[in-house]
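BACKBONE STRUCTURE TOKENS:
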Amino acid sequence: MAAATSARLTVLSGPSGVGKGTVVAAVRQRHPDVWVSVSVTTRRPRVGEVDGVHYHFVEDAEFDRLIATDGLLEWAEYAGNRYGTPVAPVAAQLATGRPALLEIELQGARQVRARAQEAQLVFLAPPSWGELVSRLAGRGSEPAAVQERRLAIAQAELVSSGEFDVVVVNDDVARAADELVGLLTAPSPSLCPGGSAHE
């Protein structure tokens, strides 16, 4: 994925319920100059979600078309729905030399690492397992069976944190958002003397 050398692609991932969306919303509010990719999904909108702001909500046929035409940087199926990152807006942002932020699931983060090795992968972790369980239960927007499935997936995802370049603990949303922006705007390791984060 060619881009200006000063551009930085940063991927934020983490288990369901850890607060990825909340942290990204805080980034948008506190640092409006940060560009955040808007994913496409086949999931139905939740209450308060706006098409084109939180996600681009599409039908399965449109998602199939994007896959077939190589229009997605990555895509993954999660809890029965598909999510993906449109490649064109990300490439256009990186071409300007400014950083881009993706909020995606673990499967997608692995695809980005395989396709763009210079990408910085950030894992958002809960302060504790108990806190994550509490957050998922507090959503109240999903049946118990779906919550149990998300918790089982989350346990497996927490183990994968070692695959990421940086772990940010979401114990305070504003602090986590500021830490993430600091990572976004830090000089890329590949531009620094002495090596790379991926050696």
Observations:
- The chain has a mean pLDDT of 86.
- The radius of gyration is 16 Å.
- The chain has one domain: 9-191.
- The helical segments are 20-30, 60-68, 87-95, 106-115, 129-139, 144-159, 173-185.
